[in-house]
Design a protein that fits this description.
This protein is mostly helical. It has 14 helices and no strands. The structure holds a DNA duplex (21 and 21 nucleotides).
Length: about 270
DNA sequence: AAAGGCGTCAACCGCGGTTCC
DNA sequence: GGGAACCGCGGTTGACGCCTT
């Protein structure tokens, strides 16, 4: 038994929205709110699928949407968040006020992805061929990233040390933990920065065995899930430090090296400044 | 000037997760 | 507890404009 179609395909209009339709949609939502999207088109007098209305509103017509070129800061954040989260566009969008997941996804696919050097791809293939435990999420293709995430989730669930934040541990320790982990390590590597031998990995967070990058990913996802009230009770226990940790990672001083490929395309940078 | 290629982005589709009854 | 309804997400498609030949 398949899922019922969300609307009668014969009845609804498809394709680009006209200014008139936009106006009807905006006017109705302004006055009444959208209610349930399924019934919205009928109530508003639009010959559109409810999903289509929702998409048009959330991706284009919402008043808080910021249009126009992405700033350098925004690009920087997208790179960093993508390194942590992979193709979790909604999660990334939630940290970029005024930007939608669709917009970020398109921008990534058309502008940012091509700035990642080919040699990273080569590194990726070499590393993924060696051992799955050494997988670096930020270097993975989408499919590899997804499978790595699944595997990492499984590892996480078996690694009690990743489930608990030591009582009374200051946030800076959390940050150090994160930075010394694979997630922190991934930033320089993602940008082809050579990390010197004084790079320290604590015994409990050996990068090849702890999957601490997943720690980061799970914390952020847990936070997102918590925000939407949908996180399962046996998932990572979230506390305030997750947000602080991510912010610290995002705010880590960029001396121009870490995001080298942001400067890869002068034309794009010109547009974003 | 015209045709074809390419890049961008709005919109669609299908699926998984959540909520409600 | 189970199923239907609904929502939201990520991947994909298609239209359109620009560029190159």
């Amino acid at each position: 038994m398949g899922r019922l179609p969300c609307c009668d395909k014969g009845e609804v209009k498809k394709g680009a929205w006209t200014p008139e339709e936009d106006k009807i949609l905006v006017d109705y939502i302004t006055k009444n709110g959208h209610g349930t999207w399924r019934s919205f088109p009928k109530l508003a007098g639009l010959r559109r699928c409810g999903k289509s209305c929702r998409l048009r509103w959330t991706n284009y017509l919402r008043p808080d949407i910021k249009r126009g070129a992405f700033s350098y800061d925004e690009e920087q954040k997208i790179f960093q968040l993508h390194a942590l989260l992979g193709n979790k566009w909604a999660s990334i969008a939630s940290r970029l006020p005024g930007r939608t997941d669709n917009e970020i996804k398109n921008y990534w696919n058309s502008h940012l992805r091509k700035r990642i050097p080919d040699k990273d791809t080569a590194t990726l293939q070499a590393s993924s061929a060696s051992t799955s435990a050494d997988i670096k999420p930020n270097l993975l293709s989408t499919a590899e990233h997804e499978s790595a995430s699944v595997e990492a989730d499984a590892r996480l669930s078996m690694d009690p040390i990743l489930h608990t934040s030591p009582p009374g541990l200051p946030d800076c320790d959390f940050f150090l933990r994160a930075w010394n982990s694979e997630a922190g390590e991934s930033f320089p590597k993602a940008h082809a920065i050579k990390v010197e031998s004084d790079y320290v990995v604590g015994p409990a967070f050996n990068a090849s065995s702890s999957g601490a990058s997943v720690d980061e990913i799970c914390k952020i996802e847990a936070e997102d899930a918590t925000n939407s009230g949908s996180y399962s009770p046996n998932s990572y226990k979230v506390d305030k430090s997750s947000d602080i940790t991510l912010d610290l990672l995002l705010d880590f001083p960029n001396d121009g090296e870490y995001l080298q490929y942001l400067q890869g395309d002068p034309d794009d940078n010109k547009a974003s400044t």
